[in-house]
Structure to design on (191 residues):
């Protein structure tokens, strides 16, 4: 669902004209995903959860519904994303870069990142992965865009204009091992 905000802009011949600006209204679609992740990682009340690259924190918010009593935290590089985040999650969000997480060692029971690390150059990618390893106690999961063939690679590149790191699954796994990452990981493909 969307709601509309109207503003005046310049139309044909420079005359004032209405401009319709659309803003996304969250519809709850992340709840089943939060429930699945909570079950997979056996999350319970009192667990501390960190989302690296949280955007507008819709998934973090849903963790509070799926597992009442969890403590959430999110970090994103986008001030806009945080300013327009789910209101219930905003107090728990910080603006910052994933290569230097502003949290103590082993301070989270579950740390995850979904579709963030493809935006990093390889040196930043190494630092971000090592930061997740540092702040997590044990449970962690990284999901990145990947490709298994040239067609999926082309689809990924057409879709993701900010993609700086794109690798095949076995290459991602190799990088994770080289940089000491011990958590779970998964991939999204553009078939």
């Amino acid at each position: 669902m969307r709601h509309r905000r109207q503003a005046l802009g310049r139309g044909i011949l420079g005359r004032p004209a209405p401009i319709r600006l659309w803003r996304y209204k969250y519809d709850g679609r992340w709840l089943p995903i939060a429930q699945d992740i909570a079950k997979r990682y056996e999350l319970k009340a009192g667990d501390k959860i960190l989302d690296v690259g949280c955007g507008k924190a819709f998934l973090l918010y849903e963790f509070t519904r799926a597992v009442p009593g969890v403590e959430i935290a999110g970090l994103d590089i986008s001030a806009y994303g945080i300013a327009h985040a789910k209101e219930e999650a905003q107090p728990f969000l910080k603006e910052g870069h994933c290569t230097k997480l502003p949290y103590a060692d082993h301070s989270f029971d579950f740390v995850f990142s979904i579709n963030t690390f493809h935006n990093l150059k390889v040196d930043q990618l190494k630092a971000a992965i090592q930061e997740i390893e540092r702040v997590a106690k044990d449970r962690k999961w990284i999901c990145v865009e990947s490709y298994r063939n040239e067609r999926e690679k082309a689809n990924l590149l057409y879709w993701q204009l900010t993609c700086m790191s794109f690798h095949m699954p076995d290459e991602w796994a190799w990088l994770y091992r080289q940089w000491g990452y011990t958590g779970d990981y998964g991939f999204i493909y553009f078939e």
Q: What stands out?
A: Helices lie at 31-40, 58-66, 79-83, 122-135, 150-159, 169-178. The beta strands are 2-10, 16-24, 48-52, 71-76, 93-95, 108-114, 136-146, 184-189. Confidence is low (pLDDT under 50) at residues 1-15, 17-21. Residues 6 and 137 are 47 Å apart (CA to CA).
